Amino acid sequence: MAEVEASRHKRRPLTGPAGAVALAAASIGLWATTGSTAQVAGLPAPDHVVVVVMENHGYNQVIGSPDAPYINNTLKAGGADLTRSFALTHPSEPNYYMLFSGSDQGRTKDSCTGVGSLSAPNLAAGLIAAGKTWASYNESLPRQGSTVCSSGGYAQRHNPWFGFSNVPTSTAKTMAQFPADFTELPKVSFVVPNLCDDMHTCPVSTGDTWIKNKLGAYADWARTHNSLLVVTFDEGSTWSGNHIPTVLYGEHVIPGSSSGATCNHYDVLRTLEDLAGLTTHAGNAASASDITGIWT
Q: How far apart are CA 50 and CA 124, in angstroms?
């Protein structure tokens, strides 16, 4: 974690009046506005981005493992491997909030709390405010918009969007609603498998097969349809130093590329916001860095 914190302090500084405003906005939970993403060098503008969040495995438990042939032989080999990707804390729930909103929002443990109790900036609210589309696809969610804490393998603590009043609960869909026609996907969406298929309680091989079966067709399509698949993890194992796998795959990703720059959930959030063309950034994403060096 010290390595991650050090990298965060080395990020490009915000200077002058604009920097002061951005830092003040981030500190009180307001949107921070930056220049147009047309000015962000080297980032594509995909039509669709799908982010799938897996659970509780360190980098070396997945990358290079024979138990994850699809992630390694297809997504990593044909996409980009972020070799220095880190989660920010333990346990799981605060990491989901950090990835989604640039802050843990006071969540420090795994629990089912406060549906709609927050109004802070977040990825979905930013997309909606900009007139862009958002949805989440949640395996084992009983029905669209259900705020139940748990149901079978479903766990609400992995779904931070329910914590925010500025994200309609109707945008939380079941995995069965993931469209067969990928042109119907929103601009940005998150996919959250249940507690078995996300590798939380079942083996790496189970999650790897699930990604292939549920998202393999989208991944193939994304390669030729200006779209992107991101596979990442909420946190690493306790002995991994929170070093997690993060793999990107799509038309504008250089096949077989890698980035050795240290990054974390805030950097991934910042990149998602900029890929979507947002000019506002939630929480700590305002001072984070875009993921670069992997794009065609």
A: 13
